[in-house]
């Protein structure tokens, strides 16, 4: 198990934070939660990442991991003797990760339809900035096509559970369970019009109860000072090799910008340290004189030279 403190920058009502918490439970790890604001500005996490403000962000000393894809990889590397999160191989694990992102779309639209009239102006403006492709004015609670989409996704989960057993990973939960878990958790916690759909699948109901029973690991809550202390105390991990035929190899050492393609979570800026087919690593300076290595997924994120 890792000796470096594990810090999760997050807020609990995010389904993506719930995924990361379940990863930590699966690995049996102790961790510290540092709460970030739900809306911009998020000065501490933006300083730590070079400008990215999505949730969650995992910190292990001087290394910072953005997106649950990189968080899963980091935890598997840190605790290799515990059950693997990404247990099936890059293509299968990546496919289910992307599948979960697709399921998030109808759930997001349901949440926006149900709650946007209750949000204050600042929160609504923030969500419109984060999700620029969503037409907030046309969303309706109880949209039948949206309900049908959710039923189609959950029907596939039910069929897979009937084939695999207690978990989508068989007898041991893995990334497939975690990526679906976050979305079903969102239904149960915030979307009452979709709960009857989820409850219509007995296999999904039993699986969800098993996932709840896994818990969230050994959690401690703390303030941002622990992040700066951990950053200052640790040596960064070794970088991956950049292949000779990597198209962006010439950018190494230069200032670059990276952003998520699916939503506006802020563009991170930093010096490009390494890049391969799985990840991008930037150097940023959250505290004067102290650098962090920030790890982003290669797929789903766009890289450009900083102008």
Describe it.
With 307 residues, the protein is an alpha/beta fold. The chain has a domain at 90-213: Glutathione S-transferase Yfyf (Class Pi), Chain A, domain 2. The protein is 43% helix and 20% strand. It has ten helices and ten strands. It has a ten-stranded mixed beta sheet with strand order 5-2-1-3-4-9-8-7-6-10, with helices on both faces.
Would you spell out the secondary-structure blueprint of this structure?
Blueprint (H helix, E strand, L loop, with lengths): L5 E5 L4 H13 L2 E6 L7 H7 L7 E4 L2 E4 H12 L11 H26 L5 H10 L13 H21 L10 H16 L4 H5 L2 H12 L4 E5 L2 H9 L21 E6 L7 E8 L3 E9 L2 E8 L3 E5 L2
Level of helix content? 40-55%
The CATH architecture of the domain at 90-213: Up-down Bundle
Radius of gyration: 19 Å
SSE succession: EHEHEEHHHHHHHEHEEEEE
Strand order of the largest sheet: 5-2-1-3-4-9-8-7-6-10
CATH topological fold name of the domain at 90-213:
Glutathione S-transferase Yfyf (Class Pi), Chain A, domain 2
Instruction: Tell me, briefly, the overall form.
Output: globular
> What is the residue-averaged pLDDT?
93
Parts with pLDDT < 50 across at least 5 consecutive residues? none
Largest sheet: 10 strands, mixed
Please provide the count of β strands. Answer: 10
Q: In whole angstroms, how far apart are the ends?
A: 42 Å
How much of the sequence is in beta strands? 15-25%
Task: Briefly note the structural class of the backbone.
Answer: alpha/beta
Helical run tally: 10
Specify the CATH class of the domain at 90-213: Mainly Alpha
